[in-house]
Amino acid sequence: MKTYEGHEQVSLKKDWVNSVVSEIKDKLQRKSSATNVSDVDLLRVSSNRRKVEKFEELVKTARTPKTPLRKRKGGFKIVAQVGSFSRAREIKDLSRSSKSFSAAFSKYEHPYEFVQELRKIGSPILAADFSKYMVKVEYKILNRDGLQVSGGERSEFFLLDRIEGASSADVLLIDEPESSFDNHFLTSEVNELIKEMSRQMPVVVVTHNNTVGVSIRPDFILYTKKEVEDGEIRWRIYSGHPTSKTLTSIDGLELNTRDVLLGNLEAGVETYEERSAAYEDLKN
Predict the structure, then answer these.
(1) Does position 187 have pLDDT exceeding 70, yes or no?
(2) What is the DSSP string of 4-63?
(3) Residue 154 CB-density burial (10 A; 0-12 exposed, 13-18 middle, 19+ buried)
(4) pLDDT (mean) for 248-257
(5) CB neighbours of 118 closer than 8 A, spacing ≥ 6?
(6) Rounded to an integer, what distance in angstroms lies between the CA atom of residue 116 and that of residue 120?
(7) Are 159 and 177 in contact (CB under 8 A)?
(8) Contact 103, 141 (CB under 8 A)
(9) Where does the pLDDT of residue 158 fall: very low under 50, low under 70, confident under 90, or very high at 90 and above?
(10) In sequence order, which residues have a C-beta less than 8 Å from that of residue 237 and are 6 or more positions away?
(11) How far is CA 45 from CA 23, 50, 79, 113, 140, in A?
């Protein structure tokens, strides 16, 4: 009975509103030669008004300052900070457009009106991208001390990120990862990640650095050598296990594994022994 009574009240209210609208339209029509006032969908008007209120409520809640993301990658931490844009220039920089955002930003505190102003700007501000202009999301990369990274540290982070980002690939090829990085970082971060990736997929590393080439303890060695035979250049690939005395080519030629490693990763036997002697002198 209560349910029926509720439905009946709603029905009576609709009939009452419709009769009032019709009566007003008739009275206006009798006093004017203008075209009849078109029907008004009051439910739709009320619903749209509620949608706008809800939209503005959600956007303002989303703009509440917070740090929703803290993710570690090696010795680094990615932090996402959420808040409001403070000036029109920030939105202009985000859009990478030469158009002015001053008029739109004047409505920033009223999200629905702000959207209407963005629509007026038009291309290249696409409706699908409106959300990124509502809330400011700023990503920061922090180092081991919790401070924003320097240029060199940023390069270290992106190297780790690129290697880890290949986890869904069939094979990972890394060309000279030692460029611009110190050996401590290579040993503690890069080598560790490469070995972890090698448990998921084949990993091929091209290097002239002893930290990456030897300290990583590879499962297999490939060595490419250019040779001149009968006036023509010929490339041979020698291969073998790191513990093998020799590396062998497809046509049966052999090279001493120790000579290959010292020659390519240590600048030769003589340089390696000279450097070893210098270290021993410092030790003693």
Answers:
(1) yes
(2) HHHHHHHHHHHHHHHHHHHHHHHHHHHT--SPPPPP--HHHHHHHHHHHHHHHHHHHHHT
(3) middle
(4) 92
(5) 104, 125, 130, 133
(6) 7
(7) yes
(8) no
(9) confident
(10) 222, 223, 224, 225, 249, 250
(11) 20, 9, 42, 17, 44
Determine the Cα–Cα distance for residues 228 and 236; give it in Å rounded to an integer: 11
Section 27-49 average pLDDT:
78
**Residue 248 pLDDT more than 90?**
yes
The structure tokens listed for 172 are: 């990972």
Task: Map residue 245 onto helix, strand or coil.
Answer: coil
DSSP secondary structure code for residue 78 in this structure: E
Question: In angstroms, rounded to a whole number, what is the distance separating the alpha carbons of residues 130 and 133?
Answer: 5
Cα distances from 272 to residues 28, 210, 261, in angstroms, run 102, 11, 11
Q: Which two tokens stand for residue 237?
A: 């690939």
Q: Show the tokens assigned to 273.
A: 């022994």
**Cα gap 238→210, rounded to integer Å:** 19
Strand partners, 136: 83
All structural domains of the chain with their residue ranges: 62-142, 151-203, 220-284
Quickly list H helices, the chain: 2-30, 42-62, 88-95, 102-105, 111-121, 130-134, 151-164, 183-185, 191-198, 210-213, 257-265, 269-283
> Residue 259's closest CA among 270, 268, 250?
268
- Exposure string for 213-234, b = 16+ CB within 10 A, e = fewer: beebebeebebeeeeeeeeeee
